[in-house]
Request: fold
Amino acid sequence: MTARIIDGKAVAKKLRAEYKNRIAQLVAAKGVTPGLAVILVGHNPASQLYVSNKVRACADVGIRSERIEMAADVSEQVLLAEIDRLNADPTVHGILVQLPLPAHIEVRQVLERISVAKDVDGFHLYNVGGLLTGSTVFPPCTPYGVQKLLEHENVQIAGRNVCVVGASNIVGKPVAMMLMQQDATVSICHKLTRDLAMFTLLADILVVAAGVPNLIVPQMVRTGAVVIDVGINRLPDGRLVGDVDFEGVRKKASLISPVPGGVGPMTVTMLLFNTLRSAERTVGIEEAAPGL
Ligand code: GUN
Reply:
């Protein structure tokens, strides 16, 4: 068996074109332009790049974005006051504080200050808790991107065995909750899991977000499984790879996402979608997120 390769870039492009149309309609019909505020504290080069990508993606689909830069030594009070200002601004529909934050700032305080209705990253405890009952306002972007890819590829979720490798707050745990909400049987594995292969071999759908190159080799994958690789690792030779031995596993899986070009392009796409949805909600356009 040789797996079909999921083209995350193409799916992201198609979705962004749809969102661009929806945004144009919202502007034309209601006079509302979705707005996203992105706060960047300090000069972390990776964060600067991520923020630039988000701002550019907003411009491409017609979302107004506001990039707010603060010095690395900004006080927590000043940062919280800025969030309060954005919470009160009706032209801002989404607020995102780029992580990581400098050590002197308490991350939870900051994330909890963002209005739940504008928490397009899905990191506020209310949104995190909502994942448990399927009532989240905004699903977090990377897990939401995984779900959208599975949906786009018509992968059946209900009744399937899912194994999530990696139990982080931003990927592993939320993706597990989202797929459990859709009636999958989910196991969550992590650094201390003994006999990892025993779990991965049971999986009809294997989602890997551990940050360990080549963690998943063909012997650990069930023939015909769907394999979603959320890992992003930079090798010493400069290559970007996921957590899955792609060349080996693609011969055994039925469907596989590559790195780069799989889940990656979906994360910012879902941020755009959450921001659009937030703006639509302010004018009373409601839509249940599928499966959530
Ligand atoms: N840093 C790395 N990934 C993310 C993300 O998805 N959102 C935010 N706010 N910060 C990040």
Observations:
- The longest helix spans residues 8-30.
- Residues 141-264 form a domain with the Rossmann fold fold (CATH 3.40.50.720).
